[in-house]
Amino acid sequence: MIEEVLIPKLGVVTDIRIDTPDVKTFRVVAPDGKKVFEHIPGQCAMLSIPGVGEAMFSITSSPTNTEFMEFSIKKCGCLTDWLHHMEVGQQVTIRGPYGNGFPVDTVFKGKNLLFIAGGIGLAPLRSVINYVRHYRDSYGTIDIVYGSRSMDDLVDYKEIINEWCVEEGVNVHLTIDREQEGWDGHVGFVPNYVKELGFDTNKTVIICGPPIMIKFTLAGLSELGFDKTQVFTTMELKMKCGVGKCGRCNIGSKYVCKDGPVFRCDELDELPNEY
Amino acid sequence: MVKISFEKLNSLFEKISEKYDLFVPTKKNDGQSYFEKWEQGKTVSDDLNTVRSAKDFFFPQHEDIVSFKLDGKNIEITDERREVRPFVMFGVRACDVRSFSILDKVFLSEPVDTFYKAKREKGIVISLACQKPSETCFCTTFGIDPTEPEGDIRAWKGNDCYYLEGVTEKGNALLSELSLEECDRTEVDAQIENTKKILDRLPLGKLDTDSFGGDKLKELFDSEKWASLSESCLGCGTCTFVCPTCQCYDIKDFETGHGVKRYRCWDSCMYSDFTKMAHGNPRLTQLERFRQRFMHKLVYFPANNSGEFGCVGCGRCLNKCPISMNIVKVMKTLKGEN
Amino acid sequence: MQEVMKNKAKELLASGEVRAVIGWKKGEFCYDITPAVFTNAEEIDNGFIYDDFCGANLSKYLIKEAHKDGKVLVFLKPCDTYSFNQLLSEHRINREKVYVVGVSCDGKVDIEKIKRTVGDGIIALSSDGDKISVETLYDKYEINRADALAERCVNCKSKKHVAYDELLGDEGEVLDSKRFDEVEMIENMTADERFEFWRNELSRCIRCNACRNVCPACSCEKCIFDNDNSGYVNKAPVTSFEENMFHIIRAFHVAGRCTDCGECSRVCPQGIPLHLLNRKFIKDINTLYGDYQAGEDPEARGPLTSYTEKDPEPSVVTDKE
Amino acid sequence: MQVNEFKPKIVAFCCNWCSYAGADLAGTNRLNYPADVKIIRVPCSCRVNPLFVLRAFQRGADGVIICGCHPGDCHYTTGNYYARRRMTLLFSMLDYLGIEKERTRVEWVSAAEGAKFAATMNDFVATVTKLGENKRLEDLRCKK
After folding, report:
1. Nearest by Cα to B248 from B73, B87, B59
2. Which residue in B246, B261, C47, C58 is deepest, having the highest Cβ count within 10 Å?
3. Is B289 at the interface with chain A, CB within 8 A?
4. Is residue B282 situated within a structural domain?
């Protein structure tokens, strides 16, 4: 019988990393130890624990990782709570990849890239960041602005400090919302920090974070002279099928699961404000 | 064109039933018609529409997708797809037949929905021309001709016989198996002419659809009229569930005590939990949910399907909505006619 | 009557006494009437209607409307006032924010019944005393109004308004209704017949939730059947058990609070006689714990939130022959 | 050949303060009652929601019995009075739907009535055994 997209495959959790008090990163492989499927940066997968639920998560590892996939998941509901309680060796079901992903091999090619993320919003960007780091020569400068509520809430902190910060041509700008002991970096909200940093407009911007952060950052970027066609973001709405048929993740006539999750900001302006 | 007299209909049905599951609309004791599996003694109802639309055959209200057995940290996955027995539906009206091509656009587009496809391939549709349309019919608005319906085979009910005409390859193949008596179109043509006169008198037969379509997205979405239109909406799923083109679904898990069954079932965008996530809901009030349903049919669907509307004018929502709010009232109000 | 109501509505809107009027609005045809909120005289002149087809019980809309600022005018038929009282006693409506105008009712007509007689294609209807003349695309008919009355109106329990600020028309009386006859008929069947009867009815359920959403007693902020964490969420009647469970639990949850307004049966797209479930509870409550009509007195204590020491034991059911 | 004898699955909701202790007493006194009775302890008989009864049937119970303190003896003063009304109405409704009324029962069993508990269970199991498998209120998905 031909393959049915709604029927998932098996995955095994081989590693669980505690990122922040409410974010864990799960490493998933197929039972035979290989990757379950290939993806492009920005795409998502449906993870599920039968009987608990199924939900869409962005794949946070880069496709250049040939061994496994990773998912950084924040605890916020029934399923994610369950995932946070599981142990290494637990099997999950997985299907995908879904969505369009970031245009890493077309639009982004040769461009200077500016990544702006807030909180768990780094998860979908991490895949792109590591992808462009891997093919470093194909891209221009890389700037990363990442902010969180506190030092403890910075996802992938170790990777940021040990790998991204030390890499030449990658500028990392971290910020946290409030002063904290042991933090000597920048303090303040992401939108303001972006304005303070005052980037040149010769960049393509990739932004993800809480809606309120996106809203104010976009305003800041346009003050700096950026055009909406330069800005890409990734969306999230409730999904059930992942393939544009169950009918709930639409923004106007576009389905986030199929036509998204990556949208250029001027495309979003064409759609009704219902997200 | 071939014909089969009323007396011989039973033996025809018998013959079809040998190879296929045959479904015909039959009247139940509640006075309404339902598609039921034909067996000796069941007669074809003359009612225009069954309460539940014919989409049930390809997209049933619920179907098992997959089941799981959990054992410690391990999960076992079992495909729940079953072989579909070939079936024939007799007496599907023009509006419902058109709805299949609308559903096709959703379920047969990549990635193909194999549950739907399997049933679609195994199903043969014998449509039945309408002779006495109802005041709630407005299929003609969407370019559907109820006197000459689509389908694999189309049928007309004459004075003492049914006339049948093969339309598709599948339909012609079935017809040739049945070896019926050849005949001319005289009665059929007369009937079509007669029905067309009635169609001209339908109060909703020629609704204006010019103000709708993919290019009207923003102005319709931002219309102030949604507030009053949705005001008395109860948020039930009646319109959705009787609608032949509504295809939104939910996927749910059921814990059986000895494993988990994952099934898909109809869902309604009118329900408050349709888009509810752990961190919020983009369609918080009934206004947004109500708007979504009609925008989908009148704007979003045409935007993605070269202008075709997601409504076939069957009139079920006109008959069944508890508060008598429906797509006709919505269209007229948005256009400023009400 | 309709003109008197329109004038009353316009008068109270004009004086600023009420900010909005909840009434019925005419539709495309002569029978498809929609409940609506009117806020000015023009809207009332254009759309307000009160006729044989204004069956919808408007009391539930008050939950939403009476939470907004200002007072609303609502037109309630006698049976609707029972629902209104019940909602008051459950603190779902703020009485100060509602101006209730009672309107008399001589029974509402069920369009399904007419269609069953005359067929499809109704383009005009007019009511004249005991008769209703119907014109369809195909023929003309005259039917007895009594034959077209909705079941709940044939078995009307009361023409009396139990709550109002103002009454248009005459005060009616509580009637001696035969509404429990059908329940009794079912009770007198054998268990097998009863099972068959209800399977036949409930198997048609499509779980559209219309019965629940229209019901004035079903006013929970979040229904257990919508609450993912309850473990009882199933969106489709997947098995016969699901069909039974939904309707048993729904009827049980409104037991003692259901005023028997009959909206559940009116809205059911599948024509399931849901009122027979509710009436069974009402009948049982009446026989076991004494006559009780929900909504009659907003101060009264519901039969399931009270008890007496001498209540019959459950064995009256399980041991009865 | 041995005929497979039908053994009903019984769910007993027992009030923590009386019947549950009664079941305990039955145990310590070595009074026999069938092992097919699965006891679910509840804080009071009025904790039993009609949904619990239905869910038990859904998951394969052939009979459901609710045991509480004797009327007037409720630990919370009045709980069992409410339970009495609720269950009476629920059972009546099940009967109305054509579901065998003998599959449901309410019994008042105090902490001192170990013998009554065992006798009640024996009697109830016998009644349900006679009725056979629960067919009218079963959920096919839950059948193995």
Report:
1. B59
2. B246
3. no
4. yes
Within the 257-286 window of chain B, which residues sit less than 8 Å (CB to CB) from chain C? Answer: 263, 265-268, 271-273
| pLDDT at D5 (0 to 100) | 81
Range(s) of the domain holding residue C226: 179-321
Specify the CATH architecture of the domain A9-98.
Answer: Beta Barrel (2.40)
Neighbour subunits, C (≥3 Cβ pairs < 8 A)? B, D
Q: Is the pLDDT of residue C80 over 90?
A: yes
Both structure tokens of B128: 């039945």
- For chain B, positions 199-218, list CB contacts with chain A under 8 A: 214, 217-218
Q: State residue B337's pLDDT score.
A: 76
Residue to substitute from D141, D142, D143, interface B, most B β-carbons within 10 A: D141
Residue of C nearest to D51 (CA): C249
In a domain, D139, yes or no: no
Question: Could you tell me if B188 and B236 lie in one domain?
Answer: no
- D39 min Cα distance to partner chain C (Å): 20
Judge whether C82 and C259 are in contact, CB under 8 Å: yes
For B306, the domain range is 214-247+268-335
C58 & C168 share domain: yes
Q: Is domain A112-234 in CATH 3.40.50.80, yes or no?
A: yes
Do B45 and B85 fall into the same domain? Answer: yes
Identify which of D85, D86, D96 has the shortest CB distance to residue C194.
D96
Q: Across-strand partners of C20?
A: C72
Q: Looking at the 3D structure of chain B, how many domains does it have?
A: 2
pLDDT of residue C301 exceeding 70, the answer is yes
Measured in angstroms, the CA of B274 and the nearest CA of chain A are apart by 7
* DSSP label at residue B84: P
In this prediction, residue C321 carries a pLDDT of: 64
**Min CA distance, D54 vs chain C (Å)?**
7
- Tell me the percentage of chain A whose pLDDT exceeds 70: 100
B167 and B296 in a single domain? The answer is: no
SS3 annotation, A134-156:
HCHHHCCCEEEEEEECCHHHCCC
ω into D8 cis (within 30 of 0): no
Do residue B40 and residue B171 come from a single domain? yes
Are residues D54 and C307, on separate chains, in Cβ contact within 8 Å?
no
Domain tally for chain C?
A: 3
Best of D48, D78, D81, D88 to mutate (most C CBs within 10 Å, chain C)? D88
Query: Is the CB of B196 inside 8 Å of chain C's CB atoms?
Result: no
pLDDT at D2 over 80: no
pTM: 0.92
Q: Domain-by-domain residue ranges, chain A?
A: 9-98, 112-234
- Residue A14 has a pLDDT of 94
DSSP secondary structure of B196-248: HHHHHT-TTTT---TT-SGGGHHHHHT-THHHHHHTT----SHHHHH-SS---
Per-residue DSSP letter, C48: B
